[in-house]
Amino acid sequence: MKAQYSRVMNEHDEVEAAFNEAGIIRFSGESYVTHLERVSLINIDTRVRSRGRYSLNYTDVIFTLHHDTLEDLEGLNGYNLGFFKREFGEDFAIDLLSVSNTKVDGRFFKDKMAAEADTYRRVVASRVRSQICKLCDRLDFFIDYHSVSREATDDKIAKTRLYLMDVAWRLNVLPCELEMAMLIAEGRVKPI
Fold this sequence. Notes:
By secondary structure, the protein is an all-alpha fold. It has a single domain (2-186), classed as Hypothetical protein af1432. The protein contains ten helices and no strands. It has helices at 2-22, 33-49, 58-65, 69-73, 81-88, 90-99, 112-125, 128-143, 150-171, 175-186. Helix 2 packs antiparallel against helix 3, helix 2 crosses helix 8 and helix 5 crosses helix 6.
C-alpha cells in the first residue's frame, strides 16, 4: 500500500512538473494540476460511493492524473503512447488514448466537429475506466465553467447531453450531478 501511494505521489509530481514546464494553465489561471487533482478526487469519490460496483485501485488514480497527458503533452518528457504501454501496460495506454483528443493517434479531420465526434465515439465504445474518467472530467468542467466563455459552456452542455449522459445513466455514475451542474451552468437553477 505504501509503495502504491508513493507511485501515485511520484506520478502527480511528474505530471505537475511537466504541465508547469509546458506552461499549460487553466482558463481560471490556476495551475493545470488542480484540474487533474479534482478529476482524480471526483473519480475516487465516485468509485467509493459505487459500493463495490466499480473497484478503485492506484492505477485508476494515476490514470486520471494522466488523462490529459497524451492530448496536451505528447512528446514532452517522453510522454507518448509507447511510454504508457511500457509503464502501465497496453490496456492503460489504450484507455488513455480513448479519452484523448483525436489528434493523438494520427487521424486528423478537416473540421472540429468530426474530430470531436470521433473522440466521443471512442469514449462511448471504451472500457469503464475511460468512461468514468470522462464523466469526472466533464463534471470538473462544469464546476469551473465560469472561467470559460458562454459559447464554450453551451457547447460542452450540448455535447454532454448528446454523447455522455447515456453513458452516465447506464453506468449510474454521476448522472444527477452532471444534470444539476448543467442546469446551474445554463442559469436555470441557482447554486446553493
